[in-house]
Specification:
- With 281 residues, the chain is an alpha+beta fold.
- 38% of the residues lie in helices and 14% in strands.
- Helix 2 runs parallel beside helix 5.
Length: 281
Amino acid sequence: MSEEKTRETTAPNERIDEQSTAPPTPPAAAQPPAAEPQNGGKAPAAPAAGSQERPPAAPQQQPTAPPGGEAAGAEPLSGYHYPNKWARIILTSAEEVMGRQGVNAMLNMAHIPQFIGNYPPDNMKKAFPFEGVGQLQQAIWDMYGNRGARVFAVRAGEQAFHEGLAQFGSVAAAAQVAMRVGSLEAKVKLGLEFFSKFFNTVSDQVVEVDEDDKHWVWRITRCPVCWGRHSDEPVCHLAIGVLQAALAWTTNDKKFRLLETECIAKGDDNCLILIEKVPVE
């Protein structure tokens, strides 16, 4: 593996001071002007010579999320989607720390102001575009820097895991029974295989699991967290948070060191997270 700038991530305990900056006014989408009256079937009078006729001003309308519970923010270019609930958790987790005004500013910076006061529905339908996930993560990064973005994303990732898994209680219970036998290493391996299939099912991301002598390897070949982003360092903190929660659930709250060594945002082919096989004492 080529030498890359690496970063070790552990569960953070920091809290970021609430921001009080008021967000900029979200842009408004124009509505087409109403049709001209028919004027009794007569053609409209031509403008006087030397003058320019201007069309009537179009009324302004705030953009809104599509009807029917869909949560498509910007027009999706990729066609890949994240569960509504997980996108909603990114916003609600951020609101707990930065407040509603801070979230509004973040949504403006992410160029998806239609979700101001109108969060995605609380369901696991795959309807929130990867572009929106990447834009939200980048907006948090721009507002708070790498350290602050890590705190927000890891918190949201852990919450997303627990609430997402709660939607599939019977499947989770069966997996937990299967993981009661065997060594710790066997449990983790089985758990990672189960969760890779789970994440690949509930979202359009693609995860593969591998291992070497000292690490389990969590490889994301299609990553929503860094979708459309560019960075000199790994940025998939949300994936780290989800994975930390999954490992704790699998091993009765044992903690492991996770290190993202490759990231699509910095030009690598995949996002690669190494998990040390020996838990932290």
